[in-house]
Backbone:
């Protein structure tokens, strides 16, 4: 059994961030950080009071609004500047600019009017830290905050930045919170976050909720306790060119009807899914690189939706894209490579449409479907999987159309334990084992596929598997075209079965097939071989040009086989397809066995039916396998293309013990 995680384990792993937790959550008190030693600076050149003049009072600045926007300087070490940012904000008129000199400012800054608030110097030198409240609380229609370090700490709503409305330009800041999330965007706000570093928040890096919008671009969002970005309750932001990595939960979590456009982001090395889509959320992911996650690249569940286009989803520890519990994304034109388990895993009634994706190098299967999962997979290229290209089991469903499935180390398509996919119009090539393997009660409809170059048989059916195999081209397998054994069942109808190394159709060990209307030609064994309690119903098949003849049916299996008897190839007469007339020359050879040489090897005597013994040969394989050797050795160079050869294998101890037609014969092989 493959080591796939159970739903219970996955549910345990995929805990989701809860940025909407009670803002009054109790937290441990955090000791105040030591104040940054502010370097000595000259008095601000802009709007500095003249020598001996008193600094403007807040009332004087308000009264002088006609002079246009002014610059206010905050420097806690100078008497001719504001001691706190809050004091400068209260003194400022709409449109004014506040410049904050280096230092540590312990306060909750409420911006309730359009302002520009800018740190003077490296952002790490200008620190605003609050306890139990946001470092910056934005409540204006517009504004700009730039080049500051903003820290929330303590309990309560201790965000780094709380954007409650309007369009804030938040640029070049270093933002963190030991109590809550780094940034929260709410109430329909539409900010622009550019070039910030948002990190080490106790909860999410950025929360966008309550129908908020916003453009979040070119930021580094990392090492946050939960999601890097959490989007919920109808929020619809644009995330572009961000680096979202090393989070304690998902890189981006979209839930509770959240939407959003995620473009060209690097989402890497997060503890859970790179992107988690849940509870009716419907984002668009385009052109992102989602890699190296400790769980899935993308996880869609709880009726989540979404459109995933042109993303690279690579090297995740679990699955490239996992879909469950009614999730139904549209996944188109992505590249899923080197994920440690599956490229796609659809389970627990997951749905979705998956088109034109490239799925390569999966550690187990290219696509895994189970427990009621029912995807539509169309036009994908699934290649070089370490086990199966497609694996459907435990009542998995799905429609697989026009895909290319190649280079699987195991099977191209594997179906078991009630799996019942529709597999139509695919190219299933160069699998290390079988093109298609249906077992353990697996079902499914396989039609109009090209199944080529299988390392074993093109199609294998065993242990109660019962597929319908219809209208396929099954060719060039290293063993049989179709092989049923161990009580395998199914219908094999209207297929072209050609060029396989052994029998076109082989049935044994209690298997029963309905074999109807197939063209079985040019295989290395018999057209149809039945042995070891195999059986079935064989009607209207065209069997010609197979190396060991049309039929090879063990005597004890005759009672298990129903064949039509219309004088055609199904009646057991290997009539050349090119002519309706019998051949002009009939030569029959018999292979007699039952004696051993001095070394204990079985000795086979090759007997011409009329003249008598023509030679002997030592053979260590099963008697029927000697037929091809006999034909090659004793008919070479006869130059009679119209000749029909027959080889009968039988047990006897005297050359004269020639059997009658099929009487006491272990097998009969025909060769045209």
Residues:
């Amino acid at each position: 059994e493959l080591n796939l995680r159970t739903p219970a384990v996955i549910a345990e792993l995929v805990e989701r961030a809860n940025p909407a937790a009670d803002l009054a959550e109790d937290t441990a008190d955090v000791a105040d950080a030591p104040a940054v030693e502010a370097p000595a600076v000259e008095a601000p050149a802009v709007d500095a009071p003249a020598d001996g003049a008193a600094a403007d009072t807040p009332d004087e600045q308000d009264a002088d609004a006609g002079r246009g926007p002014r610059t206010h300087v905050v420097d806690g070490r100078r008497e001719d500047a504001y001691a706190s940012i809050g004091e400068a904000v209260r003194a400022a008129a709409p449109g004014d600019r506040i410049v904050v000199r280096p230092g540590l400012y312990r306060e909750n800054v409420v911006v309730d009017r359009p302002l520009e608030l800018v740190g003077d110097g490296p952002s790490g030198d200008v620190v605003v830290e609050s306890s139990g409240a946001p470092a910056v609380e934005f409540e204006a229609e517009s504004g700009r905050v730039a080049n500051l370090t903003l820290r929330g700490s303590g309990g309560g709503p201790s965000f780094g930045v709380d954007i409650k409305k309007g369009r804030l330009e938040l640029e070049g800041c270093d933002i963190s919170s030991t109590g809550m999330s780094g940034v929260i965007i709410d109430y329909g706000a539409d900010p622009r976050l550019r070039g910030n570093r948002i990190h080490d928040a106790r909860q999410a890096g950025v929360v966008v909720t309550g129908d908020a919008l916003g453009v979040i671009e070119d930021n580094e969002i990392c090492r946050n306790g939960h999601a890097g970005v959490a989007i919920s309750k109808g929020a619809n932001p644009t995330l572009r060119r961000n680096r979202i990595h090393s989070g304690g939960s998902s890189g981006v979590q979209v839930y509770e009807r959240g939407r959003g456009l995620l473009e060209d982001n690097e989402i890497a090395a997060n503890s859970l899914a790179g992107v988690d889509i849940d509870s009716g959320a419907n984002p668009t992911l385009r052109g992102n690189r989602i890699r190296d996650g400790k769980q899935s690249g993308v996880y869609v569940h709880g009726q989540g939706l979404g459109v995933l286009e042109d993303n690279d989803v690579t090297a995740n520890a679990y699955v490239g894209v996992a879909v469950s519990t009614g999730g139904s994304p549209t996944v188109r034109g992505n590249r899923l490579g080197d994920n440690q388990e599956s490229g796609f895993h659809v389970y627990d009634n997951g749905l979705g449409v998956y088109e034109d994706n490239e799925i390569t190098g999966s550690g187990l299967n290219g696509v895994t479907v189970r427990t009621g999962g029912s995807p539509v997979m169309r036009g994908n290229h699934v290649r070089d999987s370490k086990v199966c290209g497609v694996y459907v089991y435990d009542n998995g469903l799905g429609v697989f159309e026009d895909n290319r499935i190649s280079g699987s180390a195991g099977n191209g398509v594997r179906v078991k334990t009630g799996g019942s996919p529709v597999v139509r119009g695919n190219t299933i090539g160069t699998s290390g084992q079988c093109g298609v393997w249906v077992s353990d009660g697996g079902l499914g409809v396989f039609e109009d596929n090209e199944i080529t170059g299988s390392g074993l048989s093109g199609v294998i059916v065993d242990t109660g598997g019962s597929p319908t195999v219809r209208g396929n081209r099954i060719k060039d397998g290293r063993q049989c075209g179709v092989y049923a054994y161990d009580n395998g069942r199914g219908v094999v109808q209207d297929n072209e079965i050609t060029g396989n190394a052994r029998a076109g159709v082989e049935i044994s060990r209690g298997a029963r097939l309905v074999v109807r209307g197939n063209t079985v030609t040019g295989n290395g064994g018999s057209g149809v071989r039945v042995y070891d309690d195999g059986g079935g119903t064989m009607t209207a098949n065209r069997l010609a040009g197979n190396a060991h003849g049309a039929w090879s049916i063990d005597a004890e299996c005759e009672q298990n086989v129903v064949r039509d008897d219309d004088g055609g190839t199904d009646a057991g007469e290997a009539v050349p397809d090119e002519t309706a007339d019998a051949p002009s020359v009939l030569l029959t050879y018999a292979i007699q066995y039952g004696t051993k040489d001095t070394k204990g090897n079985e000795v086979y005597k090759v007997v011409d039916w009329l003249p008598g013994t023509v030679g002997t040969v030592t053979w260590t394989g099963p008697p029927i396998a000697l037929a091809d050797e006999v034909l090659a050795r004793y008919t070479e160079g006869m130059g009679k293309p119209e000749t029909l050869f027959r080889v009968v294998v039988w047990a006897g101890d005297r050359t004269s013990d020639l059997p009658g037609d099929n009487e006491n014969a272990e097998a009969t092989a025909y060769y045209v």
